[in-house]
């Protein structure tokens, strides 16, 4: 019981009235779920309705929730914590708490696999994932706009710093093509401090995130540039596999989305 009381005290110190800036979230989970065929829309509705505020009240943040148009049964989201200790405390409080206990049956009945999880950190403060305002249910009654793109680079061990320097011109090219920067993340190489939720151990990875106005921009403009960049970066002998490009459609309540007239940061 002493451990529980200590955790709750620490949890109270983490919760804030408003989300912190992106650079104050130093631990990020990139979570990709496989849901049952033809049930993804139900999963989106449950998640968007029940969970963003639940995480925020515990001191964590759902930075963005997405479907993958190219993969019908995929659901992907980004969850952020202030630090590694906060990850253990918040996850413990949530998964042993009342919100998850009440709704876990509905969610678990829709999930086939939820173990595809990368444990990441921002490359540095300048490359943190931006914390955009929550979707305004009045001004954004139609939901979110835009497309988020994630490019996953499987980097050879010990090569993360060299690779990010080598990849910088490619990321500049993505920006020149109209993508707004939404962060560069790298594998957080630490022991999983909440083993009830598995994370992948096949890293390291470098993950670039960007936001575009629509799917046409992602497919016709960014995708060919990203393919050329991936081929060029592979020649540097710092990758241990082919990069993967994820095209992600924000769910109706995803913070990470295209906002007209505003930069991502």
Automatic annotation (TrEMBL):
- Which InterPro entries does the record match to this protein? Dimeric_a/b-barrel (IPR011008), NIPSNAP (IPR012577)
Q: Where is the signal peptide?
A: 1-17
Matching entries from Pfam families are given as:
NIPSNAP (PF07978)
| UniProt entry tagged with the keyword Signal | yes
Instruction: Show where the NIPSNAP domain sits.
Output: 29-124
Keyword Signal on entry: yes
The alphabetized UniProt keywords are:
Signal
Name-wise, this protein is NIPSNAP family protein
- Species this chain originates from: Massilia terrae
């Amino acid at each position: 019981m002493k451990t529980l009381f200590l955790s709750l005290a620490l949890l109270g110190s983490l919760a804030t009235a408003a989300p912190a800036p992106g650079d104050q979230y130093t631990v990020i989970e990139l979570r990709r779920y496989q849901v049952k065929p033809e049930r993804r829309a139900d999963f989106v509705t449950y998640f968007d309705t029940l969970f963003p505020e639940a995480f925020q009240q515990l001191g964590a943040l759902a930075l963005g929730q997405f479907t993958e148009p190219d993969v019908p049964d995929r659901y992907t989201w980004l969850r952020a914590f202030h630090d590694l200790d906060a990850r253990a405390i918040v996850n413990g409080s949530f998964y042993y708490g009342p919100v998850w206990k009440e709704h876990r049956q509905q969610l678990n009945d829709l999930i086939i696999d939820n173990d595809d999880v990368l444990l990441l950190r921002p490359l540095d403060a300048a490359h943190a994932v931006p914390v955009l305002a929550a979707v305004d249910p009045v001004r954004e009654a139609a939901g979110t706009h835009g497309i988020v793109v994630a490019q996953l680079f499987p980097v050879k061990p010990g090569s993360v710093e060299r690779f990010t320097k080598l990849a910088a011109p490619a990321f500049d090219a993505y920006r020149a093509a109209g993508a707004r920067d939404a962060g560069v993340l790298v594998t957080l190489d630490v022991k999983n401090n909440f083993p009830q939720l598995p994370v992948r151990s096949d890293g390291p990875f470098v993950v670039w995130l960007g936001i575009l106005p629509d799917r046409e921009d992602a497919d016709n403009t960014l995708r060919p540039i990203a393919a050329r960049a991936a081929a060029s970066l592979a020649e540097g002998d710092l990758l241990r596999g082919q990069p993967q490009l994820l095209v992600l459609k924000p769910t109706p309540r995803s913070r990470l989305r295209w906002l007209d007239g505003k930069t991502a940061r």
